[in-house]
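Fold these two proteins, one after the other.
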Amino acid sequence: MQLVRPDMTRTQLDNSMEGKIMTNDKTKNAAATDGPYDVIYFAKKHRISNEDAKDIIEKYGANRKEADKAGRRISA
């Protein structure tokens, strides 16, 4: 990775960064909420067994709202 030097022009800086993807924590977190839960995370979140968490995730897939409802029902 090339470091930014104070003597670089804007064009040189743009060219040195070309093709590189810059992310921040917000984009990482947004992407993490798009798909189904991780089994271990879900089990810990709802204090249920990994097996129950796996069954819920398989049933509801990426529908986190419904998966959370099911997780709350089991943990209660």
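Now the second one:
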Amino acid sequence: MGLISFVGTGHSLILIDAFEIPFMKFFPAVNTASNGSPRSYALPAVFKSIELLLPRDRLFNRMLPIPLAAILGLALSAGSATAAERVLAIGGAVTEIIYALGEEDRLIARDSTSTYPPEAMELPDVGYMRALSPEGVLSIEPDLILARGNAGPAEAIEVLQAASVEWVTVPDDFTMQGVDDNVRIVADALGVPDKGQVLRRKLAAELAEVTAATAGLEQRKKVLFILSLRDGRITAAGTDTAAHSIIGLAGAVNAIPEISGYKPISDEAVITADPDVILMMQRGASGAQHGADNSMITEHPALGSTTAARDSAILRMDGLYILGFGPRVGEAARELSAAIYPNASN
């Protein structure tokens, strides 16, 4: 442990891990000391909370949790903390939100799922969001990491969250409320809540427009989202998935609500569901399909017997666009709805 004292204050800070140097950059008017002092603050390495230890000869002999911001205020009373200027975005939707807020100049890197807007591809890539390397992430020296809740692996995330870099989790919530919350979280972390409020109102209006446009449908079509089709085996989307949510926003229903998550399904389940539309992902400018072309669907013993195959109602859309649930979600829902219901009046 190292002992750090405020100059002329009679207070001291005890670090419980070897983070004296990173901590000192937040406290320019602090010197290291070897003696005790009337009060001590136990500082966890993660810098998320501080505990105030009152002297034993005082009446209030107890540990009192206080926010880190309160201690920062003592040392930085001359001004507020500097806003993050070296931001790492982990998750395609997170990166899109940052661009939509007009704060892209603060981005220094992204993960490999952050493929939109196109200019984001020019940023350094720290790798796939579920296979992060702490060394690779920290080597770019971010001062703020905004990451989707499903970033991983868990061991890497624990290391990164324990480092002296601010980490903000953007939850995986594929709902209208979730999109609103995520914009607010990112905007607040970047210190631009007013911009966040403007974007939130815009998204709410777009989603309300899509909902109103499909409210009068007499019969909602059944959509089967196929994640992959390999060697005749179908992996499809059930409930609790982004695919399930975007299908609902587009005014349709999931053809297989009996399962949860993305799971393999049997031919019998497909025949029983008899979807009106089949939806798949299309990735890349080359137009390469995500596991199957139309012939693989129409010639499949189960898929080929469905209403969707007979009517050639097979749709493909960009994966990040329809499943990312970022600032383009309203646009994506509207486009998907128009493709599902091509004869619906505008």
